[in-house]
């Protein structure tokens, strides 16, 4: 029987052709498989305690188990001087799409090292020799895990940077569309009103005061639109707190007649990193803007900002008619997409609850901040 016939990988059989040698290697392969099953089971059980969703999701669980087996197989192959298995496909993009932050991957990698090292040391006689065999096994295991984790983390960051770039490009497109659809239209309509007034003057007929007032109001509305666009383009939090920046935006933006509240808790006790403040501000601002534009029949808008237990939570809630996110044309409405992309860039999540009684956007961002 040849190695190809019996299902035992060639990498484990090497060049052995003698019956006894082949049987020994079969026994070694069976021992490795038994050890691997125990390691993976214990590893997944511990991961379930620190990052439950990595194990609860069947696809992520299978991916995690496969990576653990790849680490064990590659470590043994290197220690035995055998050809190492082909490097597994990079999973950074998969993790980004599944909202798995690199911090969760690092925690899982630490747990895998802890569970894999003792059984590998128990096999030391077949893996490494000499007085520093244990050190050699630990170093190789660490290197193998590192070689899998680092490229995945880099790929994760690349995916998120690409998404943020797309969100910024879409924001510029929306500004251009607003300039065309609203500003240009308003200026064009005002020009028609002025042309009519000049025609009346040229023909000696009396001016229509109501039409002139309507033209003036149209120009005023268009000017406010331009100011709003300029604010969105240049607005940053800067030296202000996140709550201060949001309050100023609400004071400037929310129309008279809409009840608006901003509740803040915990920001005075921490110093938020500047990029967290800026991106969180843009996310909340976009949610407020969507509410003001699309929340039909809304009478109130509530914004809550809370920082506790190393997490920033921001909630934007209105009592409008709500909508079905599945019916939104994302080719025309980029705001909803940008919320998620920017949140992922912070390692967090932006979740929309769009029921019939209104829309709630909840932003959560993990923090590593210094206490004031």
From TrEMBL:
Swiss-Prot/TrEMBL keywords: Kinase, Transferase, Two-component regulatory system
Entry superkingdom: Bacteria
Pfam families: HATPase_c, HisKA_3
Signal peptide start-end: none
InterPro entries named among the record's database cross-references: HATPase_C_sf, HATPase_dom, Sensor_HK_TwoCompSys, Sig_transdc_His_kin_sub3_dim/P
Domain called Histidine kinase/HSP90-like ATPase: residue spans: 281-368
SUPFAM superfamilies in the cross-refs: ATPase domain of HSP90 chaperone/DNA topoisomerase II/histidine kinase
Molecular-function GO term, any one: phosphorelay sensor kinase activity
GO cellular component, one term: membrane
Residue intervals of the Signal transduction histidine kinase subgroup 3 dimerisation and phosphoacceptor domain: 171-236
Protein name, UniProt field: Uncharacterized protein
Native source organism of the sequence: Modestobacter muralis
């Amino acid at each position: 029987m040849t190695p190809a016939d019996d299902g035992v990988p060639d990498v484990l059989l090497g060049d052995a052709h003698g019956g006894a040698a082949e049987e020994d290697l079969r026994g070694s392969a069976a021992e490795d498989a038994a050890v691997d099953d125990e390691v993976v089971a214990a590893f997944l059980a511990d991961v379930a305690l620190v990052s439950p969703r990595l194990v609860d999701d069947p696809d992520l669980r299978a991916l995690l188990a496969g990576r653990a087996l790849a680490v064990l197989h590659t470590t043994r192959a290197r220690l035995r001087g055998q050809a190492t298995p082909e490097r597994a496909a990079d999973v950074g993009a998969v993790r980004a799409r599944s909202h798995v932050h690199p911090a969760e991957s690092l925690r899982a990698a630490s747990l895998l090292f802890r569970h894999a090292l003792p059984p590998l040391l128990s096999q030391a006689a077949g893996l490494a020799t000499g007085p520093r065999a244990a050190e050699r096994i630990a170093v190789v295991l660490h290197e193998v895990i590192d070689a899998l984790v680092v490229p995945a983390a880099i790929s994760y960051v690349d995916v998120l940077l690409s998404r943020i770039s797309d969100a910024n490009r879409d924001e510029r497109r929306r500004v251009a569309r607003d300039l065309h659809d609203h500003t240009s239209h308003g200026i064009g309509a005002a020009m028609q009103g002025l042309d009519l007034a000049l025609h009346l003057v040229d023909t000696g007929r009396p001016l229509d005061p109501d039409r002139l007032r309507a033209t003036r109001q149209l120009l005023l509305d268009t000017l406010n639109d331009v100011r709003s666009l300029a604010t969105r383009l240049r607005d940053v939090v800067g030296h202000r707190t996140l709550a201060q920046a949001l309050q100023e935006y609400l004071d400037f933006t929310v129309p008279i007649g809409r009840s608006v509240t901003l509740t803040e808790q915990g920001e005075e006790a921490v110093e938020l990193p500047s990029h967290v403040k800026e991106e969180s501000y843009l996310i909340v601002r976009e949610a407020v803007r969507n509410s003001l534009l699309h929340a039909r029949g809304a009478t109130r808008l509530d914004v809550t900002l809370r920082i506790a237990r190393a997490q920033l939570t921001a909630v934007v809630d209105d009592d409008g008619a709500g909508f079905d996110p599945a019916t939104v044309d994302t080719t025309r409405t980029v705001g909803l997409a940008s919320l998620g992309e920017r949140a992922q860039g912070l390692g967090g999540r932006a979740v929309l609850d769009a029921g019939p009684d209104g829309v709630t956007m909840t932003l959560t961002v993990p923090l590593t901040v210094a206490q004031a």
